[in-house]
Amino acid sequence: MKNFKHQTAEAIASAVLAASPDAGLPAEEIEGLLEYPPDPAMGDLAFPCFRLSKILQQAPPKIAAALADNLRDFPLGTVTAVGGYLNFKVNADYLAQQVLTAIEEQGDRYGSSEIGRGKTVVLDYSSPNICKPFHIGHLGTTVIGHSIKLLHEFVGYRCIGINHLGDWGTQFGKQIVAFRRWGDRETVERIGIDELVRLYVKFHEEAEKDPSLEDLARAEFHKLEEGDPDNLALWKWFCDVSLAEYEKTYRQLDIEFDHYTGESFYMDKMGPQINRLREMGLLKLDDGAQIVDLSAWNMPPCIILKRDGSTIYHTRDIAAAVYRKNTYDFDKAIYVTSAQQCLHFAQLKKVLELMGYEWAENIVHVPYGTVSVDGAKLATRTGNVVLLKDLFRLSIEKVREVMDEKNPDLENKDEVAEAVGVGAIVFNYLYNSRIKDINFILDQALSFDGSTGPYAQYTYARTSSILEKAKAAGIEGKGGTLTHPSEEELLKVLSLFPEKVDEALEAYEPSVITRYAIEICTAFNHFYRDCPIVTAEDGSQREYRVRLTRAARTVLGTALHLICMKTPEKI
């Protein structure tokens, strides 16, 4: 309803100007004040006249009545005054002509725009830690980040997706110690990353009994930083073993990255930034560590070099940010990480600003909440993890069981089961506001009823089945007219897609699209219940309803794509 909203705002602006030439209010400002009434019976849009009360020196109800009178010839619908509100009811013919035609002409580009044309966005997301497997806690950064990338591409941005692997730090000193004491190459090659995790967990168990292991681990990492060839060879092998495992997960999610440049990539790029900090007088000695004092901004100090001279996350992130600006000249640099890192990125932005980098204001941190499974929080150090590959496998198996029972003759059953099983988990995660803590319950996520991924994918498959039957019946889906309220309601929902894309982009919030996909499904299934489509007796109705089904399929398919969902034609 974006065009209707825009034209309504322009009409109100003209009516206000006519009522009082000195009280003009820009159409853009009016458009931002327009609301969607909670009860559809009140209308499709509402304008609160309270904003005009001070300007026009009149009570809001009187203003609403006068504007309604000025807008009685509004060509796109009807206008009524209710209290201090102007209520607008969109003309069904306008909806049918404008929205349906736009979807048919634009196809899967409907809802897109060119607002990002000529601009570059760098997105840092997923970023698992080497030697640790994907668990459900990694799902947030991965699918939220990729959805935000898809949304930016959809409106014209050039997007650079970077997987900033956690491939450096003292944990590798621990991994090296653990491997040399309790591991062997053959077992790691055979079992893979799970064996590396077992060794990592064992290190912490043993370190509780023998704290000197922690000192040994720090020493081994320092040797790694100094370029010790044996430690470097082990570290590189750990990375290769880990990446082989991660790629399996990314293939299931249909996610590709432009670059895998982990923390180690920036090792030779930190020196110039440390020197710049020192030359600008920003580095201070604090208990043996080199820090940037941020107390003036109510933040704890930002550590740049630890007491033993080792670098830390901040050091590498400063070097990474400068490298990315110099390499990609980004307009925005988006980091999708846990909300627990909010302070880290506030410190990063402030330090970059103090270093004289004006583009620091273009760094955007997109935080998300924690996830638990049936109330149990996750911790790699203790081995209390729910691995994503295990969750995917279980979900796919459960979907396969349902398909074997309900559609035993379905072709490519394995492919569909994976799309629905993996999609159920992704959809369930993205349905919630990203900042909200989530308690994941698999049986709820796998339901084919309610606000779930399987329900959305099944609805998409239903539209595909209807269109296939229409084609077989020789129904082209051309022409026709709107005749039923359920058709009108579906059109209204489809008209909202451009606004939903804008809203999701502005808030970096994929859940806007996820919840909107359910709105489409609900409206379409009401339409399907109320209106015979292929079997409608009237030829004009058949044509129009097939057109509407095709439009719903187009918009739903695009919405699901934007939240990392696959769209099987049959389930």
Provide a short characterization of the protein structure.
With 571 residues, the protein is of the alpha/beta class.
What does this structure look like?
This protein has 571 residues and is of the alpha/beta class. Among the domains are: 2-90, Gyrase A, domain 2, CATH 3.30.1360; 262-368, no CATH class. It has helices spanning 2-19, 27-33, 50-56, 60-70, 92-106, 136-154, 171-182, 185-191, 193-209, 212-225, 229-253, 270-279, 313-328, 342-354, 388-406, 413-431, 442-445, 453-472, 485-495, 497-507, 511-530, 539-562, and strands at residues 45-48, 77-82, 85-90, 120-124, 158-162, 283-286, 289-292, 302-305, 332-338, 363-368, 371-373, 438-440. The strands form 4 sheets. The chain has a 4-stranded parallel beta sheet, sandwiched between helices. Strands 1-3-2 form a 3-stranded antiparallel beta sheet. Helix 1 packs across helix 2. The longest helix has 25 residues, at 229-253. The chain starts with a helix and ends in a 9-residue tail after the last helix. Mean pLDDT is 93; it is low at 378-383.
